[in-house]
Design goal:
Radius of gyration: 17 Å
Strand content: 5-15%
Number of helices: 12
Largest sheet: 5 strands, mixed
Helix content: 40-55%
Shape: globular
Order of helices and strands: HEEHEHEHHEHHHHHHH
């Protein structure tokens, strides 16, 4: 198992989970803080080793939420519930991945990376309403915790949901942006492992537009600005989609202390 400086990166140490981290500890509304050990974000755990599953069991993970597409689930596999029983929910946030979208397969100039990513995240707001509302409703159930949610690399779909949950809890934008940028560490770890262990996958990884692998602060800051401008807040977005106020309050009760 690799060594991770948890204090500075918020990451836990795993063999084949490279962008797994705890969303706890952030200052939130009314002088409270997000609870440690309740909500984890990650890259896909479909290839978790036995040692990784032992670590997850030690963290008490009871619920896993997969944000990937139906195609990704079919091609890559899902969390190994046969080896570590959990409640497993598949809530696709987008209908197709960027490599499947002809609009997005060209390179993006470095100075346009943040704008490219923000546009993708705004599309998730428009298209991912059912997944977003279902996920938040899930968090209203005290029995769901600890919960792990993930996409493929744990940066974009996972980053949007993490940002919206933290906003719902009253975490400041600068902290939300900081959490998003930590995925740069996870991307570097994925790339290093692929180069060392899987040349074929490493080649595919390195041929991706670099914008797809970036997590610049401006991308998340602009996404939050859009969220505020269009809906006022995550709470406004969710209430417009029929999530009751009592559900949102239950999420805060479950995740804040």
């Amino acid at each position: 198992m690799s060594t991770i400086d948890r204090a500075s990166t918020r990451m836990e140490a795993f063999d084949l989970l490279f962008n797994f981290r705890d969303l706890g500890g952030y200052p939130a509304a009314d002088g409270r803080r997000v609870r440690w050990g309740r909500l984890y974000r990650s890259d896909s755990p479909h290839q978790a080793t036995d040692a990784d599953l032992t670590t997850l069991a030690g963290l008490g993970v009871r619920t896993v939420v997969d944000l990937r597409t139906h195609v990704e689930l079919a091609e890559r596999g899902r969390f190994p519930v046969d080896r570590h029983p959990v409640r497993h929910h598949h809530l696709p946030l987008i209908s197709r991945t960027w490599e499947d979208d002809v609009r997005l397969t060209t390179s993006v100039a470095p100075e346009l990376t943040a704008g490219f990513l923000t546009a993708r995240y705004v599309e998730m707001l428009a298209d991912g309403g059912p997944a977003l509302t279902s996920f938040v409703t899930l968090l209203a159930d005290p029995a769901a915790f600890p919960t792990l949610f993930h996409c493929a690399v744990g940066k974009d779909r996972t980053g949007v949901i993490a940002a919206m949950v933290l906003d719902l809890l009253g975490v400041a934008d600068e902290q939300i942006v900081h959490d998003y940028t930590l995925s740069a560490l996870g991307m570097a770890r994925i790339e290093a492992w692929l180069v060392a262990n899987d040349p074929h996958e490493a080649d595919a990884w390195l041929r991706q537009p670099r914008a797809w692998l970036a997590s610049p602060p401006a991308a998340m800051a602009s996404f939050l600005d859009h969220l505020r401008g269009e809906y006022g807040s995550t709470e406004g977005y969710l209430q417009a989609r029929g999530v009751p106020a009592e559900t949102l309050q239950a999420v805060r009760t479950n995740l804040l202390h």
